[in-house]
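Obj.: predict assembly geometry.
Materials: sequence records (below).
Method: joint structure prediction, all chains together.
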Amino acid sequence: MDAQKYLNEIKGRFPGTADAALERIKDGVPALLCPAPFLFEIVKYLKAEGFNYLMDLCATDYRDSLEVIYHFCALETNVKLTVKVRLDREKPELASITPLYPGADWQEREAFDLLGINFPGHPDLKNLLLPCGWEGHPLRKDYSRKPDQYD
Amino acid sequence: MNISYGLENIWTWLITLIDRLFCRAGLPYIFAYTLEKIIFGVALLVFISISVLFLIWLERKVSAHMQSRLGPMHVGGWHGWAQTIADMVKLLFKEDIIPAKADKWVHRIAPIVVFVPSLMAFLVIPFEKNLIGQDLNAGILLIFAFSSLAVLAIIMGGWASNNKYTLLGGIRSAAQMVSYEIPLVLSVLSVIMLVGSLKLNDIVEAQQGWHWFAFTQPLAFMLYIIAATAEVNRTPFDLPEAESEIVSGYNTEYSGLKYGFFMLSEFTNMLIVALVAATVFMGGWQGPKWLPLPGIIWLLLKTYLIVFVLMWFRWTFPRLRVDRLMDFGWKVLIPLAFVNIFLTGLFMVVFK
Amino acid sequence: MTENTLKDKDGFETMYLNMGPQHPSTHGVLRLGLVLDGEVIIKAEPDIGYLHRGMEKLAESRTYQANIAMSDRFDYVTSMNNNFVTALAVEKLLGVEIPKRAQYLRILMAELNRVVNHILFFGFFAMDLGATTALIFGFREREEALELFESVCGARLTYNYFRVGGVSRDLPAGFIEKAGNFVKMMRSRLKDYDDLVTGNVIFQDRSVGIGRISKEDVLAYSLSGPVMRASGIKYDIRKDDTYSVYREFDFEVPVRENGDCFDRYMMRMLELREALKIIEQVLIKLEPGEILAKVPKIIKPPAGEAYVRTESPKGELALYLVSDGTANPYRLHLRAPSFINLQILQKILTGVKVADVIAILGSIDITLGEVDR
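Observations (raw structure tokens):
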């Protein structure tokens, strides 16, 4: 696996990074579990190393924590790499990578909208899919809708 | 050319009859004259409304067959001939909505202002030699003068609706119609130079025996058709009502009969430019000698040929962009029109 | 509503034009907030969410098979491709082997749907530029393709044809012949398309050089599919990160260099031809056999996660699926190509005319069902 090289490099450079539970990702794409404060630097490093394409950015609620998953790809060599970040559920904050990958803009806004993750550094963090002033974050597992006039 | 058949015989017979009756009754000629003009006007109105209804139906059938569809097939029995009548009745019954913040009076007047000038232009068109509302000395000038009034109504409608799309449509139409009127008039100017008269009957008679100006002035004819398409806001120059860009342009906020007036005037204008093209460039009411049909039939045949070409354009071409439209008008059409005038003048000086 | 405080370059007031969500050509319920100086756009801000149905949340309360049915509604123009990615993701978690015939049928349907999508793109793009006849032409051919789908799975838009482990039904009698005729007919109709639209001077005037997207922007904004390849990046997941049995088929990945509206249009027209090529090859290669692998009645994949990428007609359609071992997915996230491709609008709409907005939006080819999910 080519991407393993980058993983080892990153692990050497940024103490505290560890492999994510590798067995959970099928298809053998290596995953990196990175501490939230290092994310921006690691992504910057990855971009410089040729991971020029952000395939996907999404977040999941694991009840005890929130997880943000970045799927990167280097189009020339077709090497793929997954970066995962665990966040505190009460006050989830993660540096925005929109300055590096403008394509992350709406995806971060979506995560902000649906899971309530705050991305400091994002140029315009506001509701995307939900109407203005919506309370709660629907994709969180403990979300319960307030009864409205139709209930 | 003396034509002893045609609708004009009935018309002259009717005029003579009215004249005599009024003379017998001892009334002054002015009354007879007024009555004749009223009868002619009413007949013209009936003709125009029927033609427009027919044109709308034709447009739908032509477009349908070009797109391998059938178009209206049910209303009225034969190929849906009554479809437009049904549509008009529907428009009559629709609620007339005036937007709350609209300039109400301007909003109300605009459909009238758009319709009346397009009717006025019919007055000077010779359907046959004597079948004409008024054979004015400045006939063709009058047509262009009235057809340029339509832009006023479109701006009125666009402005008064207090909607951004209608405003954009109105502004587009102002720019477009002002700039395409110039090549329109210039293209006809070369014909007028050759004929030496602004009277439409003179222009028709100058084309006796297949000397159509469409053949002797092909460039002018092409310029006229292009500029006329733009003048009546049809694709590829339908920017004022570009559906995919500004919803429906200047008539977005109109409903019911007022919208119907805008639609009718669009087709009336198309009829006028086609009539003028048939009259000025295609020999008007004159037909071949071996086929003695009434002149009005020949005129309408030629007119509908032009109308068909305009419809053909509409269902084939995409739409131009506003700046390219202006470029085309000012940088291509107008210089070409001037070149044409220059060549015509040169020809006249050299050969006469 | 955004307060309009922007001034134009001479310091005069600008106009805020609210294009959509009800507008004839925003392809659904997209809203574009445009700040205009006359007809020139100073600032454009796309606003989405008017069709948000919370499908990612809905997915968590549905079984895996029900999720395939729901995936039809993501991008309702390319339902087969959505079925494909969902089925692939579940199968990757389960680790099942798919019978050969089912693989071929899947590719056949996915490519047919690509043809349908590109025909629709042709119609709508020409319509956006004002050529109405092209739309009807497109719908005429689409009808034939929909009838093929209907004969296979009984539905014309939401097919629900794929199953975990294969497909739901085998081909009806005479399908191969009909599909072969369709391919032949499509080839001749493509000539009509080129005559009517591609070579038209006004069409080229409206699309060449409009809405140019550079290579760098494609990468930065994660654009994918025909939009990416129109800008000169030759990357097709079917070739470069292949899935299913695409490597058995011989097809080209067309590339254009300029990245303008015309190239994006041409990309679709070229891809349409390649898709027809694949369909023809599938029809030859099809052999009788199983169409459904042995899978349990109630699908409970082992806990884990999978990220599956496919090449949908709109771009990279990927599914991130997390299972916790129960019958419902724990998390389902769709990487919707329309959603991500749409972001570029903010950048390239500045400085163009109102008419170009429609052309550029049309050339990116979005479906709001997929953008909002």
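Conclusions so far: The interface with chain C takes residues 63, 66-69, 164-165, 168, 172, 235-236, 238-239, 242-247, 315-324 of chain B (CB under 8 Å).
To do: check interface contacts against the pulldown list.
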